[in-house]
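Researcher: We're teaching a course module on how sequence relates to structure. For the next exercise, students receive a sequence and then see the predicted structure as tokens, so they can try to spot secondary structure elements on their own. Here is the exercise chain.
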Amino acid sequence: MLIVVGILLALQIDQWSQARIDEQKEREYLHLILADLEADLASIDNDLNFNADKVAKIVTLTEMLADTDEPFYGLDDNRVAQLMPTISSFTEHRPRAVSFRNMVSAESIALLQDPVLRTDLTDYYGDDAANVRTQERAARLSRDFSSYMLLGAIQGGDTDLFLSGQAIDLPLSITRADMMRTDPETYARISELHIITASLIQMLETERGVAVGLVDRIVAELSGR
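Model: And here is the predicted structure for the students to work with:
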């Protein structure tokens, strides 16, 4: 009888010890994932600020094109040249998934005791095809609009100056530049770029909300132990 009790006690101690080890591993993973999520939030905030500024500059350029009382000199205008580096640029956000993927690779995801948190993290770090398509489209439209402005106004020269936000002191086709404001394609392109950038902002705000929720839940999980 004493032998049986001893075996059962040893098994219980082993189980308790393993539970403590698993809980410690879970805490370590949660701390690492929390750091990744906080890095995501910093990145998302930077991208939101950039894209908000981009929308403002797109609106400014649209207003310049619509103001027929003033001549439009295309990229030979300091105002336009200063807008284009932002308008022609774009952001790409991907969640920082190193810690989560390491946990999955180690077949340790079952260490997360909260099944809802486990599922939500899996969803957050999963491949979101819609978000990827939105970002790819924003990148393509930004590049296309940049090329359109260059081809429409410059007859040859140093495009590095254009990309650096400096006015380009080159022989330009002023007639061609001014025609851009009456060309429906100009407005179609800039409108499309405006819409996709606004969609990107909405996507980033949604992503931020999910990340904030996960941060709050992980902090609560770690604080409650």
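Model: If you want an answer key for the exercise: Confidence is low (pLDDT under 50) at residues 153-159, 165-175. The CA atoms of residues 144 and 197 lie 14 Å apart.
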